[in-house]
Amino acid sequence: MPRVLLIEDDPSVREGVELGLRRRGHEVRAAATGEAGLAAMTEFRPDLLLLDLMLPGMNGVQVCRQVREQSQLPIIMLTARGDDFDVVIGLEAGADDYIVKPARPEVIEARIRAVLRRLDDSGPGRPAIVVYGELTVDRVGLTVTKAGRPLALAPSELKLLLHLSAAPEQVFSRQQLLEHVWGHSFHADARLVDACVARLRGKIEDEVGSPRYVQTLRGFGYRFGPL
Amino acid sequence: MTRQGGTATGEQRARVRAFGLRTRLLFAFLLVAAVSAGTTAALTYREARNALLETAQDTAVTSFRDHVQQTGFALPVLPGDDLDELLRNIARKGKPHPWVVFAEYGSVRASSGENPVSTVITPELRRAAHANPHGSFERVVKDGVPYLTIAMPMVFKASPDSVLPSGLVLYAVMRMTDEQVNVDALLMAGRDGALPGLAVSLIPGLIAARSVLRPVRKLREAALNMGSGRLDTRIPVRGSDELADLAHTFNESAGQLERSVRELREAEERARRFASDVSHELRTPLAGMLAVTEVLDEDADGLDADTARAVRLVSAETGKLAVLVEDLMEISRFDARAAGLNADEVDVAEAIRKTLDNRHWTDDRIRTELPDGIRARLDPRRFDVVIANLVGNALRHGGAPVTVRLRTEARSPGPPVLITDVVDSGPGIRPEALPHIFDRFYKADAARTRSAGSGLGLAITLENVKLHGGTIHAGNRRGGGAVFAVEIPLHAEGEGAGG
């Protein structure tokens, strides 16, 4: 069972979510502030971070950026708003997914599982290491290098790249990507995809303005290549 | 739509303009000028013409009478050279113009000209000549030439105050062309004087029209500005006439309108913010409560009956409260116009099937007619909410089987529309409930104290459809059963995926 670090300032939410997840077998460590949460990271070594956006002092977006600087830890934001502005800022800061409060424990757990799920695309006869232009994707070791330099990709970015590059030149709608990469069965927010594509492009493209690897097809979605 | 309306009103306006204020004012000025000039000219003309003609007539009649009386005629009159000579003598003395003299005595006819009988003399004059011993005259126009004809009977003086006709009548026929020329000249003068007068009268007319029209145009612009929401529009007040009063009144009314609209907006803004704040504030405690409902549900079995019921009730109501708050938030976002459309081109049939699958509406309670290949630009999440809400309502308040039907329809003018019908097999919606069915917290069934939903479902559905630029109609089928029809314009192009 995954180890979850929960950073949430409201005691009742903190306690409620912790209790709900623990009942489902998760190992949960809860922190009331961003600073306390960051301090607990090294000692607790979580598999996933559940992060409230509205925190006193250091806010969730700052925590998110700081975590992203050092690690590829999966991050799910808890947002009390669900308002567009918050969500977009959090996604740009590097969160992999978000949950709008209030949420039932089964919903939270479904999201956690989806983020932690490995993309199983190691089909038979498919080479483990594929080279696309300057990009080298190791589909088994789950690493990506660009011109020999390893790239630090967040889980959602890596999964998105693996999914798109598994079928080069095939167009995926945002809805399809939400289902395959994020495991959203319901119609979730397509901005999740857009924000993730933007972050991924920032890391793999030479010019974000005219992307070479992840291309947009207006009205249809995204595709990998053609190079 | 507005553009089409614009051309229509434009034509209308041009039509109105033809009889606009300016035209009417000019017409009024012209009319006054024309009437006064015309009356003056007509009166002057009449007087001058009469004076001219009467002078000529009097001269002619008097001189003819004198000449006739000075001429001795031997009676009975016999035709012959003597008579002709006499007549020629009189004819030579014509005044003011030459005349032709005719004599009629019984059957004898003579004249100073070529024809013995004049063609100009009328029977009326002949009758008058025999009746009036002092002579009579008549103006005759023949072949466009005006003549003065004078009849002078020869009389005997029977006594100082009585005369006897002799039976001889002398006629003089005189062309009046010179007088006619003079009269025509008068007419020309009148016309030539009146026309420049009319033209000149246009200038004050235009000035007057402009002085009225400019404030009116300003007023119109100001009213248009007000209509387009710029309530701080004011008109500069000039002078102290009625138009200045109008401008002043307009400004005062505009000020009052601005004040009341501002107050209304502030009140609305406060109410909106309150609803939004309340729902935000409720979310945090709800998040804690909802997280532990599972724990309550699981452990309720091990508690004594009353506690278990209480625990299950708290758990169930917490779930409903969460839905209500979620819907309140959504409505607040619509009210604050913070709801955005994240449109994507989707296969509509696919999207509807997914909506039904996700909610496990896959049994025989639901029938679908979903033709493949219809693509439309929709916000998938919002469209999912719309369909789920309509189908959920149909199952809850209507009755199975529920049919979801998809079709497109060409519309002129405008783009073709995507129509989604949700039809149930229940008793239908009561007619008095129909107009309110999309109201917030409206309960179609008075006996139903609280529905499973928040009471905001259809209100949110309506807002979501409106956000797509579409419409939604609720009605009843003839055979019973409610029908909800969602129409959304099919946009061929638009923004694609972001990035």
TrEMBL record, chain A:
Annotated positions of the 4-aspartylphosphate modification: 52
Response regulatory domain: residues covered: 3-116
Protein keywords: DNA-binding, Phosphoprotein, Transcription, Transcription regulation, Two-component regulatory system
PROSITE patterns: OMPR_PHOB, RESPONSE_REGULATORY
Domain spans labelled OmpR/PhoB-type: 127-226
SUPFAM superfamilies: C-terminal effector domain of the bipartite response regulators, CheY-like
Keyword Transcription regulation appears in the UniProt entry: yes
Gene3D superfamilies reported for this sequence: 3.40.50.2300, 6.10.250.690, Winged helix-like DNA-binding domain superfamily/Winged helix DNA-binding domain (1.10.10.10)
Record-linked InterPro entries: CheY-like_superfamily (IPR011006), OmpR/PhoB-type_DNA-bd (IPR001867), Sig_transdc_resp-reg_C-effctor (IPR016032), Sig_transdc_resp-reg_receiver (IPR001789), WalR-like (IPR039420), WH-like_DNA-bd_sf (IPR036388)
DNA-binding region (UniProt annotation): 127-226
Protein name per Swiss-Prot or TrEMBL: DNA-binding response OmpR family regulator
Gene source species: Streptomyces umbrinus
TrEMBL record, chain B:
SMART domains: HAMP, HATPase_c, HisKA
Principal cellular location given in the protein's record: membrane
Domain Histidine kinase, chain residue ranges per copy: 277-492
UniProt domain HAMP: residue ranges: 210-262
EC number: 2.7.13.3
EC class (word): transferase
SUPFAM superfamilies linked: ATPase domain of HSP90 chaperone/DNA topoisomerase II/histidine kinase, HAMP domain-like, Homodimeric domain of signal transducing histidine kinase
Full protein name: Sensor-like histidine kinase SenX3
Native species: Streptomyces umbrinus
